[in-house]
Amino acid sequence: MHTHHTKHAGIVAALTVMAGIVAACSTTSQPPSAESVPPTENTATLEEGKKIAFDRKKGNCLACHMMGDGVSPGNIAPPLLAMKSRYPDRAKLHAQIWDATARNPLTSMPPFGKHRILTEEEVDKVVDYVWSL
Questions:
Q1: What domains lie within the chain, and their CATH numbers?
Q2: What does the longest C-alpha to C-alpha distance in the chain come to?
Q3: d(CA 82, CA 131)
Q4: SS3 1
Q5: What is the pLDDT of residue 53?
Q6: CB of 121 within 8 A of CB of 40?
Q7: Residue 58 near residue 118, CB atoms below 8 Å
Q8: What are the distances in angstroms from CA 5 to CA 2, 8, 9, 101?
Q9: How far is CA 52 from the centre of its chain?
């Protein structure tokens, strides 16, 4: 009987630790930085970002990513969904779009800002749009 009680206590302790880990992972201890808040979420800016992202001569994100209401998306890159969850810090998403090679030198994603494929303003608009997905 003593072994059963000890085993039960061990299971309860393990579940308590797991619950604490889950709770810690689901909350943030610090408020978002100023960089993680988009400069604007107005509809016009988001539409401009979407237009650039879908433009085959500009962002051309649809060539590789499934995103929003894009038609005939590619599938060689991750779908652009739940982006605020994936990139809680907007600045990290901006850095990824600006120069994905900084984090992964072997990526097939073009460094849109670094190679001046998009202007700084265009990158900001694309980031606003993608972050809204």
A1: 35-132 (1.10.760.10)
A2: 73
A3: 8
A4: coil
A5: 95
A6: no
A7: yes
A8: 5, 5, 6, 55
A9: 18
- Report the distance separating Cα 123 and Cα 113, nearest Å: 7
Radius of gyration of the chain (CA): 21
Tokens found for residue 96:
């990824």
3 state DSSP class of 102: helix
DSSP alpha helix (H) spans, the chain: 2-25, 43-54, 83-86, 90-98, 120-132
Q: Which two tokens stand for residue 15?
A: 């579940």
pLDDT for residue 42: 82
* Token duo for residue 103: 């984090």
Burial class of residue 111, CB neighbours in 10 A (0-12, 13-18, 19+): middle
Query: d(Cα 49, Cα 125) in Å, to the nearest integer?
Result: 4
C-alpha dihedral sign at 108, 114, 116, 122: positive
Task: For residue range 3-52, list pLDDT tens digits in order.
Answer: 555 554 555 444 444 444 434 433 333 333 334 444 556 889 999 999 99
User: CA 13 to CA 19: how far, in whole Å?
Assistant: 10
Q: Are 126 and 49 in contact (CB under 8 A)?
A: yes
